C-alpha cells in the first residue's frame, strides 16, 4: 500500500451537514476498498485564488490515507461525478520519504 494525500474543495454554500456527508462519503470509500485513513485536516472556508464554477470561496479539506491504485481510481471517479466538489487533487506522498 502507498501513502496518498487528498485535498478537495467544496462549495462554501453547503450546509455543515452536507459538508460532513461529503467527507463521510470519501471515508466510506477508503474503508470499503481496504485503505487506511491516517489524518483529516479541515481548513475550512477560504478565498480561492481564482473563481471556480463561479465561486470565489471554497471549503478545504485535506486527508492523508494509504491504499492501492484501485482505491485512488475509485475516489477519483466518485469525486468527479459528485455535485458539491469544486476541485480535488490526489498526490502520492510515500515517494517523499526517500
Question: Which key features would you list for this structure?
Answer:
single chain, 98 residues, alpha+beta, 4-stranded antiparallel sheet, 2 helices, 4 strands, 31% helix, globular
Walkthrough of the structure:
It is a single chain. The protein is α+β, with helices and mostly antiparallel strands and 98 residues long. It contains two helices and four strands. Strand 2 and strand 3 form a beta hairpin. The mean pLDDT is 93.
In summary, what is this structure?
Helices cover 31% and strands 48% of the residues. The chain is an alpha+beta fold.
Number of strands: 4
State the separation between the terminal residues, measured CA to CA.
16 Å
Rg estimate, integer Å: 13 Å
Q: Strand order within the widest sheet?
A: 2-3-1-4
Shape: globular
* Oligomeric category: single chain
In DSSP terms, counting alpha (H) and pi (I) runs of 4 or more, how many helices? Answer: 2
Low-confidence stretches: none
Q: What structural category characterises the helix and strand content?
A: alpha+beta
Series of H and E elements? EHEEHE
How much of the sequence lies in strands comes to over 45%
Give the helix proportion (percent range): 25-40%
Largest sheet: 4 strands, antiparallel
Topology diagram in text:
Elements (H helix, E strand, L loop, with lengths): L1 E9 L5 H17 L3 E17 L2 E13 L1 H13 L3 E8 L6
Antiparallel strand pairs: 1-3, 1-4, 2-3
